Automatic annotation (TrEMBL):
The active site is at 96 (tele-amp-histidine intermediate). InterPro entries: HINT (IPR039384), Histidine_triad_HIT (IPR001310), HIT-like (IPR011146), HIT-like_sf (IPR036265). Gene3D superfamilies: HIT-like (3.30.428.10). It comes from Archaeoglobus profundus (strain DSM 5631 / JCM 9629 / NBRC 100127 / Av18). SUPFAM superfamilies: HIT-like (SSF54197). One of its GO terms (molecular function) is catalytic activity. It comes from the Archaea. Residues 3-109 form the HIT domain. A motif (Histidine triad motif) lies at residues 94-98. This is Histidine triad (HIT) protein. One of its GO terms (biological process) is nucleotide metabolic process.
Length: 110
C-alpha cells in the first residue's frame, strides 16, 4: 500500500487539515511555505487525470475548504498544483493536489 493510502487509512501519521467521506487533506512533511497542504482522494488513483469527475468535484470542495482554513495565516494568494508523471516532478504515485499559501514577503515562483 502506498504512503498516502496509509495516511488516508490513519495507518500513518499526518496533520489532518480537512476530511470528508472521499477526501483527506494534510500538511506536507516538507513544506514549501507555511501551511503547504496536500489534498488527496482516499481511494488510490495514480494521478489527477485518473480521478473520476464526480470525485474531482469532492477534491475541489476540499481545496476551497482548505484555502478557507489557511486564511488564518493571512496568505496573499495560493498556488494550486498537481504534478503528473515523474518528469513533471511527481514522486508519490497517489493523486494529490498541492495547496501552497503564498505570502507578501516571499518569492512567488513555485
Ligand atoms: P509530488 O512531488 O509527488 O507532487 O509531491 C509529493 C509531496 O508529498 C512532497 O511535497 C513531499 O514533501 C510530500 N510527502 C512525501 N511523503 C510524505 C509523508 O509521508 N507525509 C506527508 N505529510 N507528506 C509527504
Ligand atoms: Zn495510494
Amino acid at each position: 500500500m502506498c504512503i498516502f493510502c496509509k495516511i488516508a487509512k490513519k495507518e500513518e501519521k499526518a496533520y489532518v487539515v480537512y476530511e470528508s467521506d472521499n477526501v483527506i487533506a494534510f500538511l506536507d512533511i516538507n513544506p514549501l511555505s507555511k501551511g503547504h497542504t496536500l489534498v488527496i482522494p482516499k481511494e488510490h488513483y495514480e494521478n489527477l487525470l485518473e480521478v473520476p469527475s464526480d470525485l474531482a468535484k469532492d477534491l475541489h470542495e476540499a481545496i476551497k475548504a482548505v484555502c478557507e482554513k489557511l486564511k488564518v495565516f493571512n496568505p496573499a494568494g495560493f498556488n494550486i498544483v498537481s504534478n503528473i508523471g515523474k518528469q513533471a516532478g511527481q514522486v508519490i504515485m497517489h493523486a494529490h493536489i498541492h495547496v501552497i499559501p503564498r505570502y507578501e514577503d516571499e518569492e512567488t515562483r513555485p
